Structure prediction request, 343 residues.
Amino acid sequence: MRQRRQAVRGRHAPPIGSKQNIAEREREQNVRRAIMLASGVVGALVILLVTAGFFFNVYQPPRSVVAQVGDEEIRLRDVPEYVRLYAMTTGNANVDPRLALDQAVRAKIYNWQASSLGVSAQQVDIDLELASLWPRRPYNPAPATDSSDGDDAPVAALTPEGRERYTKFLAAFDVTEEAYVEWLRSSINARLVRQHFESVQPAEMEQVRLKWIVAQDSGGAQKAKQRLDNGEAFEAVASSLNRDTTYADSNGDVGWFPKGILTELDDRFFAAEAGALVGPVQTQFGSMIIQVVEGPATQPVQDKFRAILGGIAADEWYADQWSDHVSRYNFDDSDAAWVISRV
Prediction:
């Protein structure tokens, strides 16, 4: 029976060389080619997607430029070291990567532009700063001669023991000595810039003589105002409520105060009559009640206020440098997450 069915099928099957058989084989070959082509395309797409994922998630991010100061680029891969530098120099273990990047830009600006003001950190400054940061580390003061003027300048050289501890300290934070020294150089340059602007402040300025009370909060300032309105002496109120021990004495006497520090109040100070009260008002020093005692008059500027004026001028100079020389600053949440994963 089986042989009969096979014979029947054989009688109905097209001849091997017939057109119908050839066409069927061509169709089968075309289907196989199409399947192979589709498989190749899918494979290529998979490889492309994997490659693209690797490029955009692994290869490209650390090479992307997140900031540029002049011609110098800061890449994302550089930021983890800046985070570690900031942590080791401030003692803050939880550093915002954005803050670290800001400090990196700051360092490059000061190291590049401080010389435009005629100031610049020298190697002797860095050596002495390094030694001062390791007060319990032994070091050998060694004289060095500056060939430019022939004066002897002390150079603090760490002993082998001090050098070993210093090297271990850098290794503990995974920071190179070159990066640390440049960071240190920028701190010195920032200080020199501030000192420069302090030195160029005028010796005398138009000023008013003030007394003030810096209260703990706005409520405290209101209480001080009520006591003064009730006729209590300014000195008595200041002695009990004034929290400022830096610029005022125990009676709240500040002395002669120049324009440019509390700029939002300058017009009120310099237009007020002697004995007038200003406030309560919120300032950079806190919640304040201020009494104009005397002035305006041209008077010598106190050192403590020259320092503030110099700091304000230095901050304005830095803001100008940032505006003029930082041509790129692109740092988003994904960049911050990448940095945190590498620290």
Q: What stands out?
A: Residues 50-60, 135-155 have pLDDT under 50 and may be disordered. DSSP finds twelve helices and nine strands in the chain. The longest strand covers residues 286-300. Strands lie at 65-69, 72-75, 139-145, 152-158, 204-215, 253-258, 277-283, 286-300, 326-329.
